[in-house]
């Protein structure tokens, strides 16, 4: 156990409701000794539980039973997530539905996934089989815990692995619920265990643990780089889903009404705490003032309310310390010379005084290479950038380190195709935004990540290819 830091002291991790400041629940932080024991149990379960050698349709039965178990508790889970991270209840319900769909999808995939066969060349026939890595780590952020957990756990189990899931210390309550439901659904004991605690402590220890053979991470780019370094040293595969600064492009020939609605929803949904938030709106110069005015007018009407209030459109941020980061981000934008067109402040009075709220904020007048236009706020902050032609759009659109997603609004099919191919992004939305289905791969270009989750690719992440030859 040389790679591990000194044993961490067992302590509680408290989850606080960012809408009220009240304590929602607590979990025990995993110590390094416990981590060691968990990795041992995971390997024992991997070798002895029979999970990895179950016939695919039997594994599928359990994954479908996990989906049923989540569905049976969906309202309670959505409410727990709302309290754990402050997202509006309707959004949390959507994330629970997504988790259910993910388990069902990978139940289907593990029955139908195809591998390669090369027919006989006379002396032999060759084919490939997919094998699990053994014990894998799944590390998730706080913004959509149940959805992000399912996106990793379902395919990792479908591929036959044992999983150590580490939720964020800022939203620790959903991971244990998923493990409880999975056990009840028939997943063998210790095939899914939950590691709790701070990323820099137990998260780093988990990645470094010699018994962990693959790491799947969703979170910030700086963390992803650190995890990637450790995995590089260990020579184990790593999948990274990281941050973004996604451009949302509006051409003069767009359906402006739809574009404006999508731009506002694309950044202010989830209070901007979405990796694919369209945080840079890029508007063709000839319509810049008019369209930006419409976006600002619409943003000002958004209902910033507690996450369980009727009609809520923007809830609080996920934690008070995250709000501090957003406040600092906007203050720096001011220093960089940005014009605050709306928001730019913490609302006060009533519910606002108890929760981690921040008003939807739109900023313009900044150079596209300013820090505000380059770095992720991960909050309700939109920067507006004009462009005069396609060449300038592509230069500015691709002019960040990120490449997660982009949106394009135009009535010209050919232009949409051209720009969609030219922008460096893992997901391109044309005349729509933030759509996501389990069947379609998701991931980033450049500093937004390595690997693709969802779809068949999402299962292949958790499997290694073995090539076999049969002599005839
Ligand atoms: P974060 O990187 O701080 O933490 C994410 C997870 O990693 C947490 O569980 C944390 O405890 C753990 N962690 C932190 N340091 C670690 C270390 N050294 N070793 C191992 N684990 C460590 O990110 P966050 O603040 O929780 O989430 C916000 C970020 O996540 C944003 O940048 C956002 O864009 C990104 N994100 C990306 C996607 C995507 O699919 N691309 C989805 C959601 C969020």
UniProtKB/TrEMBL annotation:
Keywords: Oxidoreductase
Classification via Gene3D superfamilies: Aldehyde Dehydrogenase, Chain A, domain 1 (3.40.605.10), Aldehyde Dehydrogenase, Chain A, domain 2 (3.40.309.10)
Domain Aldehyde dehydrogenase: 13-467
Active site residues per record: 241
InterPro entries according to UniProt: Ald_DH/histidinol_DH, Ald_DH_C, Ald_DH_CS_CYS, Ald_DH_CS_GLU, Ald_DH_N, Aldehyde_DH_dom
Pfam family, one: Aldedh
GO MF term set: oxidoreductase activity, acting on the aldehyde or oxo group of donors, NAD or NADP as acceptor
Protein family (similarity comment): Belongs to the aldehyde dehydrogenase family.
Name of the protein: Aldehyde dehydrogenase
Organism: Rhodovarius crocodyli
Lineage: Bacteria, Pseudomonadati, Pseudomonadota, Alphaproteobacteria, Acetobacterales
């Amino acid at each position: 156990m040389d790679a591990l830091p000194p044993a961490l002291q067992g302590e509680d991790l408290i989850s606080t409701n960012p809408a009220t400041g009240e304590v929602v629940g607590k979990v025990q932080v995993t110590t390094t000794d416990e981590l060691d024991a968990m990795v041992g149990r995971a390997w024992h379960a991997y070798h002895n539980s029979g999970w990895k050698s179950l016939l695919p349709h039997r594994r599928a039965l359990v994954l479908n039973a996990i989906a049923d178990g989540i569905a049976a508790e969906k309202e309670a889970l959505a409410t727990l997530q709302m309290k754990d991270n402050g997202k509006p209840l309707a959004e949390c319900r959507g994330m629970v539905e997504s988790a259910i769909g993910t388990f069902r999808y990978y139940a289907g995939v593990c029955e139908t996934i195809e591998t390669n066969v090369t027919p006989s060349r006379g002396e032999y026939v060759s084919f490939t089989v997919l094998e699990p890595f053994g014990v894998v780590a799944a590390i998730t952020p706080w913004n959509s815990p149940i959805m992000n957990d399912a996106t990793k756990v379902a395919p990792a189990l479908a591929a036959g692995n044992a999983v150590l899931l580490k939720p964020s210390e800022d939203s620790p309550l959903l991971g244990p619920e998923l493990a409880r439901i999975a056990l009840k659904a028939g997943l063998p004991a210790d095939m899914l265990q939950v590691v709790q605690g701070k990323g820099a402590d137990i998260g780093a220890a988990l990645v470094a643990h010699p018994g962990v053979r693959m790491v799947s991470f969703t979170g910030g780019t700086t963390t992803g780089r650190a995890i990637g370094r450790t995995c590089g040293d260990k020579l184990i595969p790593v999948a990274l889903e990281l941050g973004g600064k996604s451009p949302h492009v509006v051409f003069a020939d767009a359906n402006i009404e739809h574009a404006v609605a999508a731009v506002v929803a694309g950044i202010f949904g989830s209070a901007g705490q979405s990796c694919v938030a369209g945080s840079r709106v890029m508007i063709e110069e000839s319509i810049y003032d008019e369209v930006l005015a419409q976006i600002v007018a619409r943003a000002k009407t958004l209902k910033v309310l507690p996450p369980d209030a009727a009609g809520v459109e923007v809830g609080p941020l996920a934690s008070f310390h995250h709000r501090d980061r957003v406040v600092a981000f906007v203050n720096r934008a001011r220093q960089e010379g940005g014009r605050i067109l709306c928001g730019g402040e913490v609302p006060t009075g009533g519910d606002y005084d108890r929760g981690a709220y921040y008003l939807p904020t739109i900023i313009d007048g900044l150079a596209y290479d300013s820090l505000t236009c380059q770095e992720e706020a991960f909050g309700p902050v939109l920067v507006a950038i004009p462009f005069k032609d396609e060449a300038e759009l592509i230069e500015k659109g691709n002019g960040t380190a990120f490449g997660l997603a982009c949106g394009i609004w135009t009535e010209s099919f050919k232009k949409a195709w051209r720009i969609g191919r030219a922008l460096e992004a893992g997901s391109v939305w044309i005349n729509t935004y933030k759509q996501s289905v389990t069947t379609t791969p998701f991931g980033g270009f450049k500093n937004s990540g390595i690997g693709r989750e969802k779809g068949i690719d999402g299962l292949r992440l958790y499997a290694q290819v073995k090539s076999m030859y049969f002599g005839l």
